[in-house]
Amino acid sequence: MSNKYESLKLENQLCFPLYAAAKEIVRKYKPFLDEIDLTYTQYITLLVLWEKKEMNVKALGECIYLDSGTMTPLLKKLESKGYIERKRMPNDERNVLISITAQGEELRDKAVDIPNKIGSCVKLEPSEAMELYRLLYKVLGNIES
Amino acid sequence: MSNKYESLKLENQLCFPLYAAAKEIVRKYKPFLDEIDLTYTQYITLLVLWEKKEMNVKALGECIYLDSGTMTPLLKKLESKGYIERKRMPNDERNVLISITAQGEELRDKAVDIPNKIGSCVKLEPSEAMELYRLLYKVLGNIES
DNA sequence: CACAAACAAATTGTATACAATCTAATCGTA
DNA sequence: TACGATTAGATTGTATACAATTTGTTTGTG
User: Fold this and answer.
1) Residue A115: which of A37, A19, A21, A40 has the closest Cα?
2) Can you tell me the distance from the alpha carbon of A70 to that of A89, in angstroms, rounded to the nearest whole number?
3) Domains of chain B, CATH where assigned
4) Which residues in chain A are contacts of B40 at CB distance < 8 A?
5) How many Cβ atoms are within 10 Å of A43's Cβ, its own excluded?
6) Is residue B55 classed as helix, strand or coil in its secondary structure?
7) A116: pLDDT confidence band, cut at 50, 70 and 90?
8) Strand D, nucleotides covered by protein (CB < 7 Å)
9) Cross-chain Cβ contact A9/B142 below 8 Å
């Protein structure tokens, strides 16, 4: 009973489980992130800043695949919470340098258990998790070009 | 140089490429969906209705992992475009039955090429696409419970 | 040096998402 | 059969996302 609309079946679309799984897993983070008063996007922004300490808005946005329209209000929010600082760079006033504050650093200790808590609810074999990881980055790489 | 924050590195988080890949691939749909004046969420809603013809709001939302807060305005939009009808069911007035219209059916022919166009920019081997599909549904299944 | 092109952020407008709450209808059971 | 519990959908409020445009700065080139 295949027909010309076969390709339009939800079950034949790779994009759909990708979209749904991403949404559901981000939702799984919510109770843990609520405890430290962060949203998921704020959390991944801090993941980068915890490692790199400072970065301009554009570079930060490229790391996490978000544009200035999303980053600007997000960063203002994190600034208002005291976790980051934003300042125009004197040598090139077009750039805004984002840097982690001492208060932002403190939050890192409270976040350190979150990945394990999430990992335990995804419940993939290590080899499967690695393969999923590899395939997702392959998709990401292919899409960019 | 591993430390107690190792788990917080962006590159060690399975969730991040999932989140980013989903976002990027949905964005890839945009030019094709623009041509038929649909958003991605409207598109997956119609994918279900093209197959099932009619369904109440709750069942439809469960199919695509969206709650009534998202579905209600979405369905009103599709109704205003003439692609679906919404009507309270007489036997149980709590339910709103969504059904595809003739105009909605017509749109199906215009959408039929979209999956191939997207597939060609994801560029996975068929075996890889199948494995990714399997792993994503495994994650989805594990998260639900 | 002038000035158009390029660039980084910010702004604007639209469309999700989803938690929490509310309303109306129906169910279950004492 | 009354009525509390449950259910479906709608509403409210907050936070993304992103295209398109705007603003201000810097760069490159004639």
Assistant:
1) A40
2) 21
3) 13-144 (1.10.10.10)
4) 19
5) 21
6) strand
7) confident
8) 7-13, 15-20, 24-27
9) no
A40 CA vs D10 C1’ separation (Å) = 27
pTM, two decimals, is 0.92
Give the closest nucleotide to A19 (alpha carbon vs C1').
C17
Q: What are phi and psi of B124, to 5 degrees?
A: -100, 150
CB A29 within 8 Å of CB A43: yes
Whether the per-residue pLDDT at B91 is higher than 80: the answer is yes
Place of tokens 């199948």: B130
In this model, does residue A105 exceed pLDDT 90? yes
- Asked if the model's pLDDT at residue A2 lies above 70, the reply is no
pLDDT tens string A23-45: 999 999 999 999 999 999 999 99
- Which residues in chain B have Cβ-Cβ distances shorter than 8 Å to A143? 21, 24-25, 28, 121-122
- Rounded to whole angstroms, the Cα distance separating A129 from B111 reads 33
- Region A96-100: mean pLDDT is 96
